[in-house]
Amino acid sequence: MAVTRTARRTAPGATPTTAPAPARVPGPTGHPLLGSALDLRRDPLGTFLRAQREHGDVVRVTAGPPGLRTVMYCVFSPEGAQQVLATQAANFRKDNTFYEEIRQTGGNGLLTSQDDDYLRQRRLIQPLFTKKRVDSYATAITREAEATAERWRNSPEVDAVQEMDRLALRTVSRVLFGADVEAAVDVIRANFPVISAYITARAYAPIRVPRTWPTPSNRRAETATRAVYGICDRLIAARRSNGSEAADEATEDLLSLLSQAQNDEDGSLDATELRDQVLVFLLAGHETTATSLAFALHLLGRHPEVRARAQQEIDALPSGEPYTAATMDRLPYLTRVLQETMRLYPAAPLVGRRSVAETEIDGHVIPAGAEILISPWVTHRHPAHWDTPDRFDPDRFTPDQETTRHRYAWLPFGGGPRACIGRHFSMLESVLVLAVLLREYDIETPDTDVPVTATVTLQAVGEARVGLRART
Questions:
Q1: Smallest Cα–Cα separation from 343: which of 292, 402, 298, 284?
Q2: Do 319 and 334 form a contact (C-beta atoms < 8 A)?
Q3: Which residues, including other chains, have CB under 8 Å from residue 431's CB and lie 6 or more apart?
Q4: Is 227 a residue whose pLDDT tops 60?
Q5: Any residues with CB less than 8 A from the CB of 137 and at least 6 apart, and which?
Protein backbone atom coordinates (compact mmCIF):
# COMPACT_ATOMS: atom_id res chain seq x y z
CA MET A 1 0.00 0.00 0.00
CA ALA A 2 1.57 3.25 -1.09
CA VAL A 3 1.94 6.20 1.24
CA THR A 4 -0.27 9.12 0.26
CA ARG A 5 0.29 12.58 1.70
CA THR A 6 -2.63 15.00 1.49
CA ALA A 7 -3.35 18.44 2.90
CA ARG A 8 -5.15 18.51 6.22
CA ARG A 9 -8.74 19.75 6.21
CA THR A 10 -9.07 23.26 7.67
CA ALA A 11 -11.96 25.42 8.72
CA PRO A 12 -13.14 28.16 6.31
CA GLY A 13 -10.80 31.15 6.50
CA ALA A 14 -8.07 29.24 8.29
CA THR A 15 -4.58 28.96 6.88
CA PRO A 16 -4.18 25.60 5.13
CA THR A 17 -1.58 23.29 6.60
CA THR A 18 -0.07 20.08 5.39
CA ALA A 19 0.78 17.00 7.34
CA PRO A 20 4.38 17.02 8.52
CA ALA A 21 6.67 15.01 6.31
CA PRO A 22 7.76 11.72 7.87
CA ALA A 23 11.21 11.90 9.39
CA ARG A 24 14.25 10.37 7.75
CA VAL A 25 14.93 6.96 9.24
CA PRO A 26 17.86 7.32 11.67
CA GLY A 27 20.54 4.74 12.33
CA PRO A 28 24.12 4.04 13.36
CA THR A 29 26.84 5.18 10.97
CA GLY A 30 29.10 2.23 11.75
CA HIS A 31 32.37 1.66 9.94
CA PRO A 32 33.01 3.97 6.92
CA LEU A 33 33.50 0.99 4.63
CA LEU A 34 31.55 -1.86 6.24
CA GLY A 35 28.77 -0.07 8.12
CA SER A 36 27.53 -2.22 11.02
CA ALA A 37 28.73 -5.51 9.48
CA LEU A 38 31.41 -6.18 12.09
CA ASP A 39 29.08 -5.32 14.99
CA LEU A 40 26.40 -7.62 13.58
CA ARG A 41 28.88 -10.46 13.20
CA ARG A 42 30.23 -10.06 16.75
CA ASP A 43 26.95 -9.39 18.56
CA PRO A 44 23.82 -9.08 16.42
CA LEU A 45 21.35 -8.93 19.31
CA GLY A 46 23.36 -6.36 21.26
CA THR A 47 23.74 -4.29 18.09
CA PHE A 48 19.99 -4.12 17.54
CA LEU A 49 19.33 -3.39 21.22
CA ARG A 50 21.78 -0.46 21.15
CA ALA A 51 20.22 0.77 17.91
CA GLN A 52 16.83 1.05 19.60
CA ARG A 53 18.22 2.78 22.69
CA GLU A 54 20.19 5.30 20.65
CA HIS A 55 17.98 5.90 17.61
CA GLY A 56 14.39 4.95 18.44
CA ASP A 57 11.77 2.49 17.29
CA VAL A 58 12.49 2.55 13.55
CA VAL A 59 16.17 2.30 12.69
CA ARG A 60 18.09 1.98 9.43
CA VAL A 61 21.06 -0.40 9.74
CA THR A 62 23.55 -0.92 6.91
CA ALA A 63 26.09 -3.72 6.58
CA GLY A 64 28.71 -4.49 3.96
CA PRO A 65 30.87 -2.53 1.52
CA PRO A 66 29.45 -0.06 -1.02
CA GLY A 67 27.88 -1.85 -3.93
CA LEU A 68 27.25 -4.95 -1.83
CA ARG A 69 25.61 -3.27 1.10
CA THR A 70 22.57 -4.70 2.87
CA VAL A 71 20.13 -2.12 4.23
CA MET A 72 17.72 -3.21 6.98
CA TYR A 73 14.84 -1.23 8.42
CA CYS A 74 14.42 -2.41 12.00
CA VAL A 75 11.01 -2.00 13.66
CA PHE A 76 11.16 -2.27 17.45
CA SER A 77 7.86 -0.96 18.84
CA PRO A 78 4.88 -3.25 19.54
CA GLU A 79 2.75 -0.95 17.39
CA GLY A 80 5.16 -1.29 14.48
CA ALA A 81 5.40 -5.05 14.92
CA GLN A 82 1.61 -5.32 14.83
CA GLN A 83 1.50 -3.26 11.64
CA VAL A 84 4.08 -5.46 9.88
CA LEU A 85 2.83 -8.84 11.12
CA ALA A 86 -0.91 -8.26 11.33
CA THR A 87 -2.75 -5.13 10.25
CA GLN A 88 -0.72 -4.65 7.03
CA ALA A 89 0.64 -8.19 6.73
CA ALA A 90 -0.10 -8.33 2.98
CA ASN A 91 2.45 -5.54 2.47
CA PHE A 92 5.25 -7.41 4.23
CA ARG A 93 6.18 -10.73 2.67
CA LYS A 94 8.63 -13.53 3.43
CA ASP A 95 10.66 -12.64 0.35
CA ASN A 96 13.76 -11.52 2.22
CA THR A 97 17.21 -13.06 2.06
CA PHE A 98 16.95 -15.02 5.30
CA TYR A 99 13.76 -16.87 4.40
CA GLU A 100 15.06 -17.55 0.90
CA GLU A 101 18.10 -19.28 2.40
CA ILE A 102 15.83 -21.38 4.65
CA ARG A 103 13.64 -22.18 1.65
CA GLN A 104 16.62 -23.28 -0.44
CA THR A 105 17.73 -25.71 2.29
CA GLY A 106 14.58 -26.69 4.17
CA GLY A 107 12.00 -26.59 1.42
CA ASN A 108 8.76 -24.72 0.94
CA GLY A 109 6.88 -25.69 4.12
CA LEU A 110 4.61 -23.63 6.33
CA LEU A 111 7.51 -21.51 7.60
CA THR A 112 8.55 -20.25 4.16
CA SER A 113 5.63 -20.77 1.74
CA GLN A 114 3.46 -17.86 0.63
CA ASP A 115 0.23 -16.95 -1.12
CA ASP A 116 -1.82 -19.88 -2.45
CA ASP A 117 0.83 -22.44 -1.44
CA TYR A 118 0.70 -21.25 2.16
CA LEU A 119 -3.09 -21.11 2.32
CA ARG A 120 -3.41 -24.62 0.89
CA GLN A 121 -0.84 -26.04 3.31
CA ARG A 122 -2.41 -24.27 6.26
CA ARG A 123 -5.88 -25.62 5.43
CA LEU A 124 -4.52 -29.17 5.18
CA ILE A 125 -2.43 -29.00 8.35
CA GLN A 126 -4.53 -26.85 10.69
CA PRO A 127 -6.88 -29.73 11.67
CA LEU A 128 -3.84 -31.61 13.03
CA PHE A 129 -3.10 -28.78 15.47
CA THR A 130 -6.45 -28.37 17.18
CA LYS A 131 -6.26 -28.16 20.95
CA LYS A 132 -7.83 -31.60 21.31
CA ARG A 133 -5.29 -33.19 18.96
CA VAL A 134 -2.31 -31.46 20.55
CA ASP A 135 -3.52 -32.35 24.05
CA SER A 136 -3.38 -36.02 23.04
CA TYR A 137 0.43 -35.75 22.87
CA ALA A 138 0.75 -35.06 26.60
CA THR A 139 1.55 -38.73 27.34
CA ALA A 140 4.44 -38.78 24.84
CA ILE A 141 5.76 -35.49 26.25
CA THR A 142 5.63 -36.74 29.84
CA ARG A 143 7.24 -40.07 28.93
CA GLU A 144 10.30 -38.33 27.44
CA ALA A 145 10.53 -35.91 30.38
CA GLU A 146 10.43 -38.75 32.90
CA ALA A 147 13.09 -40.66 30.96
CA THR A 148 15.33 -37.60 31.16
CA ALA A 149 14.71 -37.22 34.90
CA GLU A 150 15.63 -40.86 35.42
CA ARG A 151 18.79 -40.54 33.34
CA TRP A 152 19.91 -37.67 35.59
CA ARG A 153 19.77 -39.78 38.77
CA ASN A 154 23.54 -40.05 39.24
CA SER A 155 24.48 -36.68 37.74
CA PRO A 156 25.40 -33.86 40.13
CA GLU A 157 25.10 -31.39 37.26
CA VAL A 158 24.20 -31.27 33.57
CA ASP A 159 24.45 -28.86 30.65
CA ALA A 160 20.89 -27.57 30.24
CA VAL A 161 21.53 -26.58 26.61
CA GLN A 162 22.59 -30.06 25.53
CA GLU A 163 20.06 -31.89 27.67
CA MET A 164 17.05 -29.84 26.59
CA ASP A 165 18.11 -30.06 22.95
CA ARG A 166 18.15 -33.84 23.30
CA LEU A 167 14.82 -33.93 25.13
CA ALA A 168 13.02 -31.56 22.76
CA LEU A 169 14.29 -33.41 19.70
CA ARG A 170 13.22 -36.79 21.09
CA THR A 171 9.81 -35.38 22.00
CA VAL A 172 9.01 -33.82 18.63
CA SER A 173 10.46 -36.86 16.83
CA ARG A 174 8.26 -39.18 18.88
CA VAL A 175 5.21 -37.07 18.07
CA LEU A 176 6.17 -36.97 14.38
CA PHE A 177 7.49 -40.48 13.86
CA GLY A 178 6.03 -42.57 16.67
CA ALA A 179 7.80 -45.91 16.98
CA ASP A 180 10.42 -44.78 14.44
CA VAL A 181 11.81 -42.14 16.79
CA GLU A 182 15.14 -43.92 17.30
CA ALA A 183 15.78 -44.10 13.56
CA ALA A 184 15.51 -40.33 13.20
CA VAL A 185 16.98 -38.73 16.31
CA ASP A 186 20.69 -39.40 15.81
CA VAL A 187 20.67 -38.30 12.16
CA ILE A 188 18.79 -35.10 12.89
CA ARG A 189 20.82 -34.19 15.95
CA ALA A 190 24.13 -34.65 14.12
CA ASN A 191 23.15 -32.63 11.05
CA PHE A 192 20.75 -29.87 12.08
CA PRO A 193 23.47 -27.66 13.66
CA VAL A 194 25.47 -27.79 10.41
CA ILE A 195 22.42 -26.79 8.39
CA SER A 196 21.45 -23.98 10.78
CA ALA A 197 24.94 -22.47 10.80
CA TYR A 198 25.10 -22.63 7.00
CA ILE A 199 21.78 -20.83 6.55
CA THR A 200 22.80 -18.08 8.97
CA ALA A 201 26.23 -17.56 7.43
CA ARG A 202 24.75 -17.22 3.94
CA ALA A 203 21.94 -14.93 5.10
CA TYR A 204 24.37 -12.40 6.61
CA ALA A 205 27.12 -12.71 3.98
CA PRO A 206 27.49 -9.69 1.65
CA ILE A 207 28.57 -12.08 -1.13
CA ARG A 208 26.91 -15.49 -1.49
CA VAL A 209 28.72 -17.90 -3.78
CA PRO A 210 26.51 -20.32 -5.70
CA ARG A 211 25.51 -23.36 -3.70
CA THR A 212 26.78 -25.59 -6.50
CA TRP A 213 30.39 -24.47 -6.04
CA PRO A 214 32.43 -27.16 -4.22
CA THR A 215 33.47 -24.96 -1.29
CA PRO A 216 34.00 -26.66 2.10
CA SER A 217 30.90 -25.03 3.60
CA ASN A 218 28.74 -25.95 0.60
CA ARG A 219 29.94 -29.55 0.73
CA ARG A 220 29.35 -29.87 4.49
CA ALA A 221 25.86 -28.42 4.15
CA GLU A 222 25.03 -30.66 1.19
CA THR A 223 26.12 -33.76 3.11
CA ALA A 224 24.12 -32.75 6.19
CA THR A 225 21.03 -31.86 4.15
CA ARG A 226 21.20 -35.10 2.19
CA ALA A 227 21.34 -37.10 5.43
CA VAL A 228 18.28 -35.36 6.90
CA TYR A 229 16.35 -35.60 3.63
CA GLY A 230 17.23 -39.28 3.44
CA ILE A 231 15.79 -40.25 6.82
CA CYS A 232 12.65 -38.18 6.23
CA ASP A 233 12.12 -39.65 2.77
CA ARG A 234 12.55 -43.21 4.05
CA LEU A 235 10.01 -42.73 6.83
CA ILE A 236 7.54 -41.03 4.48
CA ALA A 237 7.86 -43.84 1.93
CA ALA A 238 7.23 -46.41 4.66
CA ARG A 239 4.08 -44.56 5.77
CA ARG A 240 2.77 -44.31 2.22
CA SER A 241 3.44 -47.95 1.37
CA ASN A 242 1.61 -49.00 4.54
CA GLY A 243 -1.01 -46.28 4.45
CA SER A 244 -4.11 -48.45 4.72
CA GLU A 245 -2.52 -50.69 7.35
CA ALA A 246 -1.48 -47.66 9.39
CA ALA A 247 -5.00 -46.32 9.21
CA ASP A 248 -6.43 -49.67 10.33
CA GLU A 249 -4.09 -49.62 13.33
CA ALA A 250 -5.20 -46.08 14.15
CA THR A 251 -1.61 -44.79 14.01
CA GLU A 252 -1.61 -41.40 15.68
CA ASP A 253 1.89 -40.06 14.99
CA LEU A 254 1.90 -36.76 13.12
CA LEU A 255 3.61 -38.09 9.99
CA SER A 256 0.83 -40.66 9.51
CA LEU A 257 -1.78 -37.96 9.97
CA LEU A 258 0.01 -35.65 7.53
CA SER A 259 0.15 -38.51 5.00
CA GLN A 260 -3.60 -38.93 5.29
CA ALA A 261 -4.48 -35.20 5.32
CA GLN A 262 -6.70 -34.23 2.39
CA ASN A 263 -9.81 -32.34 1.41
CA ASP A 264 -11.80 -31.79 -1.78
CA GLU A 265 -10.42 -28.30 -2.38
CA ASP A 266 -6.72 -28.88 -1.69
CA GLY A 267 -6.13 -32.54 -2.43
CA SER A 268 -3.28 -33.96 -0.35
CA LEU A 269 0.43 -33.41 0.26
CA ASP A 270 2.84 -35.15 -2.12
CA ALA A 271 6.07 -36.74 -0.86
CA THR A 272 8.15 -33.55 -1.30
CA GLU A 273 5.54 -31.43 0.46
CA LEU A 274 5.42 -33.93 3.31
CA ARG A 275 9.17 -33.75 3.73
CA ASP A 276 9.07 -29.94 3.71
CA GLN A 277 6.46 -29.94 6.50
CA VAL A 278 8.40 -32.50 8.54
CA LEU A 279 11.53 -30.34 8.32
CA VAL A 280 9.58 -27.29 9.50
CA PHE A 281 8.15 -29.18 12.47
CA LEU A 282 11.58 -30.55 13.39
CA LEU A 283 13.02 -27.04 13.36
CA ALA A 284 10.13 -25.17 14.94
CA GLY A 285 9.26 -27.90 17.43
CA HIS A 286 12.81 -28.79 18.40
CA GLU A 287 15.29 -25.89 18.54
CA THR A 288 12.74 -23.32 19.71
CA THR A 289 11.34 -25.41 22.55
CA ALA A 290 14.83 -26.55 23.56
CA THR A 291 15.86 -22.91 23.90
CA SER A 292 12.89 -22.05 26.11
CA LEU A 293 13.43 -25.08 28.36
CA ALA A 294 17.19 -24.58 28.74
CA PHE A 295 16.84 -20.94 29.75
CA ALA A 296 13.87 -21.68 32.03
CA LEU A 297 16.07 -24.11 33.97
CA HIS A 298 18.91 -21.59 34.02
CA LEU A 299 16.67 -18.82 35.36
CA LEU A 300 14.96 -21.06 37.91
CA GLY A 301 18.35 -22.10 39.21
CA ARG A 302 19.40 -18.47 39.58
CA HIS A 303 16.17 -17.53 41.38
CA PRO A 304 15.52 -20.10 44.13
CA GLU A 305 12.49 -18.19 45.44
CA VAL A 306 10.80 -18.53 42.03
CA ARG A 307 11.77 -22.20 41.82
CA ALA A 308 10.36 -22.90 45.30
CA ARG A 309 7.06 -21.20 44.44
CA ALA A 310 6.77 -23.23 41.21
CA GLN A 311 7.53 -26.44 43.12
CA GLN A 312 4.84 -25.67 45.70
CA GLU A 313 2.34 -25.46 42.85
CA ILE A 314 3.60 -28.76 41.39
CA ASP A 315 3.57 -30.50 44.79
CA ALA A 316 -0.10 -29.54 45.22
CA LEU A 317 -1.07 -31.75 42.27
CA PRO A 318 -2.65 -35.09 43.23
CA SER A 319 0.12 -37.53 44.13
CA GLY A 320 0.67 -40.29 41.59
CA GLU A 321 -1.72 -38.81 39.03
CA PRO A 322 -0.21 -38.83 35.51
CA TYR A 323 0.32 -35.46 33.91
CA THR A 324 -2.10 -34.65 31.10
CA ALA A 325 -3.01 -31.56 29.13
CA ALA A 326 -5.37 -30.59 31.96
CA THR A 327 -2.36 -30.43 34.28
CA MET A 328 -1.17 -27.29 32.53
CA ASP A 329 -4.34 -25.45 33.56
CA ARG A 330 -3.48 -26.20 37.21
CA LEU A 331 0.02 -24.73 36.91
CA PRO A 332 -0.57 -21.01 36.23
CA TYR A 333 2.57 -19.83 38.03
CA LEU A 334 4.81 -22.29 36.19
CA THR A 335 3.20 -21.13 32.95
CA ARG A 336 4.11 -17.54 33.88
CA VAL A 337 7.69 -18.67 34.54
CA LEU A 338 7.81 -19.98 31.00
CA GLN A 339 6.26 -16.83 29.54
CA GLU A 340 8.80 -14.64 31.32
CA THR A 341 11.60 -16.91 30.11
CA MET A 342 10.34 -16.50 26.56
CA ARG A 343 10.28 -12.74 27.04
CA LEU A 344 13.94 -12.63 28.06
CA TYR A 345 15.05 -15.39 25.68
CA PRO A 346 12.68 -15.50 22.69
CA ALA A 347 13.54 -18.54 20.60
CA ALA A 348 12.97 -16.51 17.41
CA PRO A 349 14.79 -13.27 18.34
CA LEU A 350 14.70 -11.83 14.81
CA VAL A 351 11.85 -12.01 12.27
CA GLY A 352 12.34 -10.80 8.69
CA ARG A 353 10.02 -9.48 5.99
CA ARG A 354 10.27 -7.49 2.75
CA SER A 355 8.00 -4.55 2.00
CA VAL A 356 5.88 -4.65 -1.14
CA ALA A 357 5.03 -0.97 -1.39
CA GLU A 358 6.27 2.18 0.30
CA THR A 359 4.59 2.61 3.64
CA GLU A 360 4.86 4.58 6.85
CA ILE A 361 5.69 3.04 10.24
CA ASP A 362 5.87 5.09 13.44
CA GLY A 363 6.26 8.30 11.46
CA HIS A 364 9.03 7.02 9.15
CA VAL A 365 8.75 6.16 5.46
CA ILE A 366 9.87 2.64 4.56
CA PRO A 367 10.60 2.24 0.84
CA ALA A 368 9.19 -0.48 -1.36
CA GLY A 369 11.33 -3.60 -1.55
CA ALA A 370 13.04 -2.90 1.78
CA GLU A 371 14.38 -5.58 4.13
CA ILE A 372 12.31 -5.31 7.33
CA LEU A 373 13.43 -6.71 10.66
CA ILE A 374 11.17 -7.27 13.66
CA SER A 375 13.12 -8.13 16.82
CA PRO A 376 11.26 -9.78 19.69
CA TRP A 377 14.61 -9.67 21.53
CA VAL A 378 14.46 -5.85 21.50
CA THR A 379 10.69 -5.41 21.76
CA HIS A 380 10.62 -7.68 24.83
CA ARG A 381 13.05 -5.24 26.47
CA HIS A 382 11.35 -2.04 25.38
CA PRO A 383 11.52 0.31 28.39
CA ALA A 384 8.20 1.94 27.51
CA HIS A 385 6.40 -1.39 27.89
CA TRP A 386 8.47 -3.33 30.44
CA ASP A 387 9.48 -1.97 33.83
CA THR A 388 13.12 -2.85 34.63
CA PRO A 389 13.16 -5.03 31.48
CA ASP A 390 16.23 -7.11 32.35
CA ARG A 391 14.72 -8.34 35.62
CA PHE A 392 13.24 -11.86 35.77
CA ASP A 393 9.69 -11.55 37.14
CA PRO A 394 7.05 -14.14 36.20
CA ASP A 395 4.31 -12.01 37.76
CA ARG A 396 4.51 -9.70 34.77
CA PHE A 397 2.14 -12.25 33.22
CA THR A 398 -0.70 -12.22 35.74
CA PRO A 399 -4.05 -11.60 34.01
CA ASP A 400 -4.22 -8.05 35.37
CA GLN A 401 -0.78 -7.22 34.04
CA GLU A 402 -1.46 -8.70 30.64
CA THR A 403 -4.67 -6.73 30.07
CA THR A 404 -2.81 -3.41 30.46
CA ARG A 405 0.01 -4.24 28.03
CA HIS A 406 0.07 -3.90 24.24
CA ARG A 407 -0.70 -7.31 22.75
CA TYR A 408 2.43 -7.18 20.57
CA ALA A 409 4.79 -6.26 23.40
CA TRP A 410 5.25 -10.05 23.82
CA LEU A 411 5.50 -11.97 20.55
CA PRO A 412 7.61 -15.13 20.86
CA PHE A 413 5.22 -16.88 18.46
CA GLY A 414 4.96 -14.01 15.98
CA GLY A 415 1.50 -12.70 15.23
CA GLY A 416 -1.12 -12.05 12.60
CA PRO A 417 -2.04 -14.54 9.87
CA ARG A 418 1.44 -16.15 10.00
CA ALA A 419 1.47 -16.74 13.78
CA CYS A 420 3.06 -20.04 14.79
CA ILE A 421 0.69 -22.97 14.28
CA GLY A 422 2.48 -24.92 17.02
CA ARG A 423 2.05 -22.40 19.84
CA HIS A 424 -0.14 -24.64 22.01
CA PHE A 425 2.11 -27.65 21.46
CA SER A 426 5.19 -25.67 22.51
CA MET A 427 3.53 -24.30 25.64
CA LEU A 428 2.11 -27.69 26.63
CA GLU A 429 5.43 -29.47 26.11
CA SER A 430 7.44 -26.86 27.99
CA VAL A 431 5.14 -26.66 31.02
CA LEU A 432 4.83 -30.44 31.39
CA VAL A 433 8.58 -30.99 30.99
CA LEU A 434 9.37 -28.35 33.62
CA ALA A 435 6.76 -29.85 35.94
CA VAL A 436 8.35 -33.29 35.73
CA LEU A 437 11.91 -32.03 36.22
CA LEU A 438 11.06 -29.69 39.12
CA ARG A 439 9.02 -32.43 40.78
CA GLU A 440 12.15 -34.59 40.87
CA TYR A 441 14.97 -32.07 41.39
CA ASP A 442 16.04 -28.90 43.09
CA ILE A 443 18.26 -27.04 40.68
CA GLU A 444 20.97 -24.43 41.10
CA THR A 445 22.90 -22.43 38.53
CA PRO A 446 25.69 -19.85 38.71
CA ASP A 447 24.44 -16.29 39.03
CA THR A 448 25.85 -15.31 35.65
CA ASP A 449 24.33 -14.71 32.24
CA VAL A 450 24.69 -17.27 29.47
CA PRO A 451 25.99 -15.62 26.26
CA VAL A 452 23.67 -15.98 23.29
CA THR A 453 23.65 -15.32 19.58
CA ALA A 454 21.11 -15.45 16.78
CA THR A 455 21.22 -18.16 14.11
CA VAL A 456 17.98 -19.50 12.65
CA THR A 457 16.92 -19.53 16.29
CA LEU A 458 18.38 -18.15 19.52
CA GLN A 459 21.43 -20.16 20.53
CA ALA A 460 23.46 -20.28 23.73
CA VAL A 461 27.18 -19.74 23.20
CA GLY A 462 28.68 -22.58 25.21
CA GLU A 463 27.13 -24.43 28.11
CA ALA A 464 24.51 -23.55 30.74
CA ARG A 465 25.47 -25.70 33.72
CA VAL A 466 22.69 -26.73 36.10
CA GLY A 467 23.37 -28.37 39.47
CA LEU A 468 20.94 -31.12 40.51
CA ARG A 469 19.79 -32.29 43.90
CA ALA A 470 17.18 -35.05 44.03
CA ARG A 471 14.12 -34.11 46.05
CA THR A 472 12.94 -36.47 48.75
A1: 292
A2: no
A3: 327, 328, 331, 334, 335, 338
A4: yes
A5: 175, 425, 428, 429
- For 377, residues 6+ apart whose C-beta sits below 8 A from its C-beta are 45, 48, 49, 346, 349, 350, 454, 458
Nearest to 455 by CA among 290, 302, 297: 290
CB 288 within 8 A of CB 142: no
Q: What is the CATH number of the domain that holds 260?
A: 1.10.630.10
Computed from CA positions of residues 299, 305, 307, 313, in that sequence, does the dihedral angle turn out positive or negative? negative
List, for residues 70-98, the tens digit of each pLDDT value: 899 999 999 999 999 999 999 999 988 88
Question: Who's near 393: CB < 8 A, 6+ residues apart?
Answer: 340
Report the alpha-carbon distance of residue 10 to residue 19 in Å, rounded: 12
CB 228 within 8 A of CB 183: no
> Stretch 103-109: mean pLDDT, rounded?
88
Q: Quick one: pLDDT at residue 242?
A: 65
How many folded domains does the chain comprise? 1
Asked if residue 4 belongs to a domain, the reply is no
Query: Cβ of 219: how many Cβ atoms within 10 Å?
Result: 11
Which among 353, 455, 426 is positioned nearest to 81, based on CA atoms?
353
Residue numbers belonging to the annotated binding site: 420
Q: Can you give the pLDDT at residue 243? A: 57
CB 284 within 8 A of CB 420: yes
Give the count of alpha carbons within 13 A of 194, CB side only: 18
Residue 2 included in any domain: no
Please indicate, yes or no, if residue 272 is contained in any of the structural domains: yes
pLDDT digits (tens, 9 = 90+) for 154-199: 999 999 999 999 999 999 998 888 877 887 888 988 998 899 889 9
| DSSP characters over 62-91 | EESSTTS-EEEEEE-SHHHHHIIIIITGGG
Q: Is residue 25 part of a domain?
A: no
Task: Tell how many helices (H) and how many strands (E) occur in the chain.
Answer: 20, 14
Where in 388-435 does DSSP place strands (E)?
none
Range of the domain at 413: 76-470
Residue ranges of the binding site for heme: 420
Length of the chain: 472
